[in-house]
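Standup notes, structure subgroup. Blocker cleared on the pyridoxal-5'-phosphate input:
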Amino acid sequence: MSSRDHLLTNGSADRYRSLLVQGIDRVAARVAATDRPFTGVSPEKLALEVSDVDLDRPLGDAAAVLDELEDVYLRDAVYFHHPRYLAHLNCPVVIPALLGEAVLTAINSSMDTWDQSAGGTLIERRLIEWTADRLGLGPLADGVFTSGGTQSNLQAMLLAREEVGPGRKRILASAAGHFSVQKSAKLLGLGPDAVVLIETGDDRRMSPAALSRELIRCREHGDSVMAVVATAGTTDFGTIDPLPEIADRCAAHGVWLHVDAAYGCGLLVSPTRRHLLAGIHRADSVTVDYHKSFFQPVSSSALLVRDGRTLRHATYHADYLNPERMVEQRIPNQVDKSLQTTRRFDALKLWMTLRIMGPDAIGALFDEVVDRAAEAYHLLAEDPRFEVVTRSQLSTVVFRYRPLDPALADGANLYAREALAASGAAVVAGTTVDGHQFLKFTLLNPETSGADIEHVIELIAEHAVSYVERRQCAPTTSSASVWARTTSALPA
Ligand SMILES: Cc1ncc(COP(=O)(O)O)c(C=O)c1O
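Run returned:
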């Protein structure tokens, strides 16, 4: 076969069809046969498999390469569709979106200009309009698809910075907000103290009183607050900042309100919980990650703004691509609104999802995981072996095993998490709360049952107990060396 035969062209449509079907068959077989979310493979072992591949000697045959892929990737991948994957904000994906993915990647439209996308630009615009309507952002709203919540937050901070007057810039964000806010500040050249973290109450939601105090303090010091960032769905606690109270304070101080709804955006389609986003319509900008709570494949995210004109801060004209005359000629393009130039047509996945399933069906899936998280919360709150931090409004639960000796708590929880992942029986996340190690369930899979959760809780307790017992046998060993010893003793 010549090199040219590998190109997707008029003449190779049949080969394209048969090659992709082979790949889909492999994935379908893997997905169907997955009996645990992870094999527990170590980075060292997998690194050997990957480095053994000679990239200068192609195998030529797709079946052979798919066999090789089993070894370097498929066998040991982390499978988010498995009901005992309970770790991060990764969702199982809906099949209509995968249909969209297959189409968009083969056609390979680029979303920068009309002459590279045509209908793609219009479809993305319809979805932005649809999302802005759901948010209630008003008639001037606009937005753009992005690569993820991090980029959406960065662009929001760029627009806010360009809209604010002179003075030392400050961003006020909840202490439970996402680190991409700090990263954005750094990328925008703001100083290390530009982001001021506003304390949260015991419910892990931003305290409006603390926000008021900081807004007044900034005014008195002549600091220019370029944005308040509220979070609708904190990554750890699944809590939603009190948006109406925060919006009142932003309005009183004339400050840009950005709502990071990367996680909570699924509530926009929830048949029962839309009210949890009350007040979001008052935001100047909103981040939504369809690849979290809309069950879309990575990447699929958007930034929405109340006043579409603010997107001009990302506009540069290039004669070869988007000359100014195109604006006069009313030729639509998205590059004028985006931080990216060449950009995937990710919007198609959401389009196919809405056209095949409809929004209520997506919202119903999200509702299910929120219900399941409530069950998990009750299970843990009623179990004397555990403590739970707070009740999530979405689908996380942050908790920890409580050994009789509190000094062993951090080690026991760290160990339990690692041991669980190494066994492959389940994957849970870890985080720290007030300086202590906790565990976290993030539930985004409606297939996860109450029985799965009970099972994982028991496994965590077993691992934690085994840590405590070993620790009690070696009371003089420092916790760091016990940690090293126990992790190295984990099953491979
Ligand atoms: C609240 C919140 N904002 C932003 C992000 C970043 O999103 P992404 O990973 O899509 O860049 C996350 C990721 O978990 C998040 O939870």
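Discussed briefly. Residues 450-473 form the longest helix (24 residues).
Next: hand off to the docking folks.
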